[in-house]
Amino acid sequence: MNPIIKKQLDAQPKRWFYQLGIALIFVCLMAWSSSTVQLDARAGSGLSIAGNIIRGIFHPDAELLFNFTRSGVAYLLLETVCIAYLGTIVGAVLAIPLSFISASNIVPRPVALIGRTLIMAIRTIPPFVYGLMFIRVTGPGPFAGLLTMSMSSIGMVSKMYIEYIEDLDIRILESLDACGCSTFEKIRCGIIPQLIPDFISTIIYRFDMNLRDATVLGLVGAGGIGAPLIFAMSSYRWSEVGAILTGLIVLILVIEFFSTKVRVKLARG
Which of 78, 176, 209, 224 lies deepest, with the highest CB count within 10 Å? Predict the structure, then answer.
């Protein structure tokens, strides 16, 4: 070995002790976590239930799947999409002023700190809890789901908005200021063109998330396809479960395809 390379290797700090300690801690945590996993006699019946679920998914109830009434999969999926879409739009609009008062390059730091604290408080509460609260206020139905999606969207969307606002290219604004542009012109020509693509991309990404969350919120009565799904599972009607899941899979694939196209178009200009 080259003496210079050997000297550099010998001069490196010996970190094997710390690496060994981290490995031991990791093994201990794995062993401690595994101690909570308990297998009992229900494992055998669980396998049979899993087999019934798989058979139901691959043999969906065609009558329910192609039922276009209010109790059919198509209508329930449309309701779920509407809840996710309107909730995303309302949350994205409400997040705009909250983001601007939380950006440290726009407002003083104390004001930005208050805005960030409020956003953190909103993000702390899970969507499931929001759903339970709004159901108590408005009663079960799609409107409770819409309010839940709106509140859940504000936290994540505001956080992304703040990053985009703080990454604004100030040189463009300085150039417009040097040209004698007014404040409105600087906002229209210097700020909005920089923010719109990132904002729209974030909204589309949040819509994908809300579409999945809206399905779960249906379990607590906030509208959508979640309630029929849990009822079918509770009654062991696996063919109906398969029909609902088939519709969900097709819907999510279609939404993912178009949202990816739009995000790529925005990214490439």
Answer: 224
**Is the residue at 36 inside a domain?**
no
Q: What single-letter amino acid sits at 71?
A: S
Would 40 be classed as within a structural domain? no
- Whether residue 156 is predicted with pLDDT greater than 80 in this model: the reply is yes
The separation between the first and the last C-alpha atoms of the chain, rounded to the nearest angstrom, is 53
Average the pLDDT over each of 16-30, 35-49, 124-138, 168-182 and give the range with the smallest value. 35-49
Count the alpha carbons within 13 Å of 193 in the hemisphere toward its beta carbon: 9
Query: Where is 240: in which H helix or E strand?
Result: helix 238-268
Domain housing 200: 59-268
Cβ atoms of residues 249 and 216 within 8 Å:
no
Asked if residue 199 belongs to a domain, the reply is yes
Q: Taking every pair of C-alpha atoms in the chain, what is the biggest distance, in angstroms?
A: 81
What is residue 90's predicted lDDT score, i.e. its pLDDT? 92
pTM across the whole model: 0.73
How many domains, in total, are found in the chain? Answer: 1
**Closest to 119 measured CA to CA, from 85, 79, 88, 151:** 151
Half-sphere exposure of 21 (CA within 13 A, CB side): 4
| Domain harbouring 160, CATH code | 1.10.3720.10
Q: DSSP per residue over 115-152, as a string?
A: HHHHHHHHHHS-HHHHHHHHHHHH-SSHHHHHHHHHHH
> How many CA atoms does the CB half-sphere of 43 hold within 13 Å?
5
Structure tokens belonging to residue 263: 């995000």
In this structure, is residue 143 part of a structural domain? yes
Phi and psi angles of residue 225, each rounded to the nearest 5 degrees, phi first = -95, -5
Give the residue among 50, 220, 198, 73 at the shortest CA–CA distance from 144. Answer: 220
